[in-house]
Amino acid sequence: MKEMNRQTGTKSGDAGTLAAANEVLSGKSKKSGFARLLPFLGPAFIASVAYMDPGNFATNIQGGAEFGYLLLWVILGSNLMAMLIQALSAKLGIATGKNLAELCRSHFPRPVVIGMWVLMEIVAMATDLAEFLGAALGFNLLLGIPLWLAGILTAIATFLILGLERYGFRPLEAVITAMIGIISVSYLVELILVKPDYASVIYHSFVPQLTSQESILLAVGILGATVMPHAIFLHSALTQGRIRVKEDNQLRRLFRFEIFDVLIAMGMASLINSAMLIMAAATFYKQGLTSIVTLQQAHLTLQPLLGQAASTFFALSLLASGLSSSSVGTMAGQVIMQGFLQREIPAWVRRLVTMVPSLIVIFIGLDPTRTLVISQVLLSFGLPFAIIPLVMFTRRRDLMGVLTNGRLTNILAAISAGVVVFLNVYLLYQTFLGG
Asked: What is the pLDDT of residues 205-247, one digit of tens each?
């Protein structure tokens, strides 16, 4: 992401948004209600794409097919923790004018910084692998074309989306938000078609239950895959210079608006993830089809159960998820390299390099869904190196000023970090040593 886009906001697509935001923060705006909030919406919607990527499709559909509505409470709980963590990331960028990677470079020893950069680059590549494959699968299922051709179409589409960056942050935010809208509408249609048992949906959303070792492992997988390290780094970069204010009261007001951004975007992500599991529970689990383990199986099985419309909307939502999250993953990779190394390469070069592993997977014929699952496990390695520094920095008054975490926030952040890190370590242990 270009420095001008992040910090000066002089692009034509941004000027009106920045002017409206500054009027609201200075108390000069005559707007009210949603119109006052609108200029501040965007960063969290981009970051929230990580919570609706193709990896989530695979995990949520497997959970619904195997255990029905049982694990809905896991999705709700994990998204509440994600809201807190993403709000802290947004606050870090607002208060310091720097992103998480830049602060790590400034405050940690150089060997640690280099090690973190290497690890986060691996995480970024694993993320991109999952998202690129998901988009290719979407094209494959929607258009009925070979997977290799779908991969080429995915590459072209993501280049076009990233090309919007030259016009500023607002056009890119608008396109990403539109894709989230496509996913939302697709799953709204799915829910209308499947007619779920809403009494069971409400009950299992708020009553924690686990019935077997397998359900525990799947719950850990859903929780562990929810908070993505690259989204934490990216969110702090999206807010670090988007709207620049210095006065304490304006900083507080700006952060309050960003909290609304997080609540709306992450709330939508939570609803979409819940809808994925509900759809699988109301179709596959209800019909006794508990062995749905690939996205292709889910697509093919939906058609005889619910008709052509259901399978089409499923493929469309997967495509929108893959394209948006793949573009966001490339942006996160740019932030990681620039922050840790103070070096930047053109987005199209990074896009070209990171798509090569995905195209290799497609051309040699590896199972895309299995590759998605493995990539999600790899992401777990990087999570402690994003969450722990985030909590450390946001509790420091010398960095955060008036936006320093309060006592309750520190406690909740420490608990959330501990739970997420523990669950990811447990997931890794069960994956590689649990037998």
From this structure: 999 888 877 777 777 777 766 778 888 999 999 998 888 888 8
Look at phi and psi of residue 2 and say left if phi exceeds 0, alpha if psi is from -120 to 50, else beta: beta
Q: Are 248 and 400 in contact (CB under 8 A)?
A: no
Q: Is the C-alpha dihedral spanning 54, 271, 415, 232 positive or negative? A: positive
Question: What number of CA atoms fall less than 13 Å from residue 168's CA on the CB side?
Answer: 17
pTM reported for the whole predicted model:
0.85
Are 47 and 235 in contact by the 8 Å Cβ rule? The answer is yes
| 375 Cβ contact partners less than 8 Å away, ≥ 6 residues apart | 55, 126, 127, 129, 130
Please tell me the distance from the alpha carbon of residue 331 to that of residue 119, in angstroms, as a whole number: 17
Q: How far apart are CA 37 and CA 27, in angstroms?
A: 13
pLDDT tens, 315-337?
A: 888 888 888 888 888 788 888 88
Rounded-to-integer distance, Cα 328 and Cα 172, Å? 10
Overall fold of domain 3-19+34-404: Amino acid/polyamine transporter I (1.20.1740)
* Residue predicted with more confidence, 6 or 176: 176
pLDDT, residue 291, reads 66
